[in-house]
Structures are given as C-alpha cells and as structure tokens.
Amino acid sequence: MNKTIAVLKNAVPIIKPPKKLNPSEWAENLVLPDGAAAGQKLKLYSFQKEMLDIIESDQYRKVVYKTSAQIAKTTLLNSALFYWMATDSSNIGIAQSSLAELKQWKSAKIDKTIEQVPVLQELVTDKNDKTKANNQQQTELKDGSFLYFMTLGSAKALRGKTLKRIILDEVSAIDQNSPEGNPIRLAEQRATDFGQEAKILISSTPTFSGDAIDVEYQNSDQREFFVKCIHCQHEHTLKWENVKFEWKKNGKRDIPDASTAKLHCPECQEEITESQRIKMVSTGRWIALNPSVTDTAGFYINRLYSPNSTIQAIAKEFELAWFEYNYQSFYNTVLGLHYSDLQEEIDDLALENLRDDSFDLSHIPDSVLGIVVGCDQQLDRLEASVLGFNETELFVLGHRFFYSPNCEIKGAKAYTDLAAFCNQRFKTVSGREVPILKVAVDGGNGRAVATVNSFCQQYKKFEMIKGSSNTKGDLFKRSTSEGRQFYMLNVHEGKNWVRSLLNNAVAGKSDAPLTLRFAHDLPDDYFEQVTAENLERSGTGVRWKQITGRRNEALDTLVYSLCMMKLALSKLGGQPFKKLREYRSSKRTDEQSASTESTKPVKPTEPNNKYTKPKAKSIGKSWFG
C-alpha cells in the first residue's frame, strides 16, 4: 500500500494539469524577437497587467484603450492576440485604420513574433503549403481557425466574416459617418453570434473631441490610473498641469526650459523625483470613474506614467511644440488627450474686433523684420496676402487684388502688377526698409501651371507652390514635376496653425508664443473667408473642408504666407532673427550715411572717355536682394 501511495505521489506532478496562467503571466513568458529587449522575456508595466488580464473577464464584452503613443499599446494588443491563439483558438479579426499601417503591423510585429516563438509557430500552418490560406489578408491555423487582417475603411472586408474576437487599432482615424456604416459597429456585428463570449478590443491615440476613441471611452467605465504621493499619500492621476518648469529666452520669445521641469504633487506641492515617480507607478491602481457602465471597460493612460520616459524628456517635447506652435501633436501623442481648439467656432464679432487701426501697408510697424507674400490664382484675378513678422508677432498688413480677363495665360497684366507690387520697397513708419523675403504663387491649377512657373522663374524670391493632399509630413518640401520645380505645402497643417492663431487672438492670450494681428483695411469679408472651412472626418483621417457658399481665398493666402515665412527663416541659418536685425541695422547705417553724404558739396567730375564694359544683370546673392 505504501509503495502504491508513493508511486501516486510521484505521478501527481506529471498528471496534474498545469496551472492556468492569466493573460499577463502568459505574456511575460514570451521572448521578444526584436527591439531593445530582443531575446529577453517580455516585462509588462504594472499598469498594463490589468489592461491585459481583463480580456479573460466574462463581464466585459468590449475593452477600450485610449492611450498616448510610446506606452506599449501594440504590445498589449499583440499579447492578447497570441494568448487567444494559444489558449482558446477561434477566428480573430485584426483591423487597422490604413492598409500601410496594417501591413507594417502584420509583417513587423505579428508575423515576426510567430516565426520566432516556438509555441506560436506550432499553431500556424506552413506558409509554403499551397492548400492553406496564408497571405496578406489571412493566416490559417492548424485547427482550422483564421486570423483575418482588415482595414477599418473597407466595409467589404468587415462583412461576411464570423469572428469571436476582434482587435481594432487606431480607430480615431475612421469616418464614423461613412455612407457604408460606422466601421466599429460593422466589426461588432461580426461577433453577434457569440453573445457575451465575444471580445472586442478597441484602441487608439486620440485626435479631436468626438472622434471614435472619444465616443468609445465615454461609453465605458472610464478607468484612470491613480498613484499615491510619496510624501503625503494623496492619491491622484499624473497630469501635465502638475509639471512645473521655468522659461528661457529664445531671441525675443520666451520658451519652456525643459531642463528645469519637475513633477509635483497636486496636494502637498512637493517635488516628485524620477525614482519616486516610477515607484509610485509600480504600486498604483486603476479606478473606474464611470462605474455605472458594467459591460465595457475603458482605460486611459499617458506617457507621464512610462518608466521608459522622463519628465524632462516629455517637457522637451512640449518645448518643441511651443516653439513650432504645434500643440495638437503633443496633446495627442504624449498626453493621450484630445485637442479641441481647432474645432471651436469663433464669434464673428470677436474676429471683426481684431482689426487694428494702428497699421496697414502704408504704416508698417517698426518692429516688423521681414515680409512674405502668399498669392492665390483665380481665373480673373490674383489675390495676395502680405504678412510682416518678428519673433513674437505676425502682422497681416494687407490683402490685394490684381485683375486680368484670364490669369491662366502668359503675359496677363495681373502678373505684371503683382511683380511690381512685390518688388517695390516696403518701409516702416520711421522710413526703414523691410526686406521682402519670399513670394508664393499658387500653381495648383493645372491650366495655369505653365504660366505660373514661367512667371516665378523671372524673380529670385518668387516660388511656385502647390497644396498637398497629404495631411502629414513637412510644412514645405521641394518637389519636381514635368521638369518644373516648386514647393509642396502641407496646407492641412497650415490651416491647423491659422485656426490656432485665430483662437489665441480672439481669446487675447498674453502668453501665446506668437500673436496674429490684422490691419484695419482688410476686405469686408476677410474674416468670413479665413474661417470658411471646418475640420471634418474624411476617409482615414480629418481634413479641412470648405463650407458651402463661402469663399476661402483669404485663408489660402494666409496659409501660403505662413509657409513662406517658415521657408525664409529656414534659409537664414540657426539665428534667422539675428540676421534680420543685423540687416535692419545695416540699412539704418546706410540711410544715415546717405543723409550725411547729401549735405556735402558735390565736386564736379572729370570726363572719363574710357570704355566701361556693362555689368551683367544681378540676380542677388543674398536673401535681402
């Protein structure tokens, strides 16, 4: 009997089922195939464990992740996918906002991990087996289930599939009002047959208020990660408003000094060091702020919690955003928050009150260091906005019209008049000359492109420009098409910039890094035109769309002017405003010298009968002519 008992005891560890690991424990046994931690086991952050483990809860059919970038969101989604594949295989749908991002996710993250992790490789059929369905759209598992890869913008791809689990990433880019239906709702319908057993993961960095991730998070239990102050034990969330820093001079502008940034407790105001922040995060907890919702879990987390980042590194990104007047990217990708300023309606009367009687083209302020012009081409006219600027101020000095019966043909009088206007000498109220640095002329009209190109080639400071349909990328980029050189402008980003400047101007923000001011004699409908577009969903993103019945030439020309200002400054080296001030000083010295010379008696000149070879026409060797 004793021998039998001993045998049974020894057999127990062998026949006993292995301990069931929860998703986070299972994921931490995976060996990462690439990145800085390649070859090491995955180590989840403390706040990620509940975000992953909740996929096993029967209570929640839907889980929403609203996060900043670089917070290992993709790691969570991949871990959930691999856990389901290994523990309860079924048809799984994986969807991204665009085809390019979907391919990148599949090839660089999913396929690569499967190939290099044996436990996952054993689950997938041989990609060289022609009897199996393995391609960019699907991966067949050995048990007959599939991984389906889809784009959220394709209703066709979402239909006709029965899916127990669905993973949707970067949903903020979708068009919720698509004629074919809301992609998220279409995806959810694919899991209807599985009832409460279905699981839908929805993830994204936010963009604007009311985008898809905002809607989903608002309809969840809205969990936030709370930490306890190392000094006073006050439980709170980490917010950007609790990061304090000093300001430093950059020319005449004050910008944040990231090297002085410190995190403080909102209660006791004590400074929290990096090591203390990481320790606080490691012992934090998720708290649902909307507990009345019981079937959808929502998680919000930002980079202030990341052990892989520092407060000063984050502040450095804010410093750059402040310098470039681009807050949206910082709010979206660093703080994981929506940026709604660009969507706010601006009161018409408030805009009209921005007209300033103190300046116009005949009374240019002495503080103006440079001038740029943005010109729009229409069939019967050219419209140009004149923008003066210094480090902290932008002056819309005027808006001019140049007419011809047909501005699509070479030799039209409007171009001659525009050239004469732009080549004149602009002077401030004290008589100092201000350099005109760049003139942009829109060549986006295919019928006029040859005309605009020929015109701009005659003058060094004139540039043919075209607006890009791409909403991402550089503000300006040198391009060539059919032998013609021009600058491609990111007009979407330019319009974001204009709306942000308008909002600051109306609000009268004294701490704004750049102030936009308007001359009193701008056209009557000028402000109606600069607000003639709304930010709306379009395809896989957002775009500025013209309001029906409204003209937008003033908006376009202001955008062109701002882009030309950035281009001109980029050509002046690391301290462009210093160079502009040196030019101003040199002109003042020249004017004083000329004044002195004019008071001296003029000596009669002796005749010179020698032949002098005429000099070639100068095209100018500097930015100032």
Characterize the biggest β-sheet: 10 strands, mixed
Helix content: 25-40%
Indicate the mean pLDDT: 87
Number of strands: 26
Shape: globular
How much strand content do the residues show?
A: 15-25%
CATH topology of the largest domain: Nucleotidyltransferase, domain 5
Q: Oligomerization state of this entry?
A: single chain
Number of domains: 3
Beginning-to-end CA distance, first to last residue: 107 Å
Low-confidence stretches: 596-621
Going by helix content, strand content and strand pairing, the class is alpha/beta
CATH classification class of the largest domain: Alpha Beta
* Number of separate helices: 19
GO molecular function: ATP hydrolysis activity; endonuclease activity
Biased composition (Basic and acidic residues): 582-591
Region (Disordered): 582-625
Protein name: Phage terminase large subunit family protein
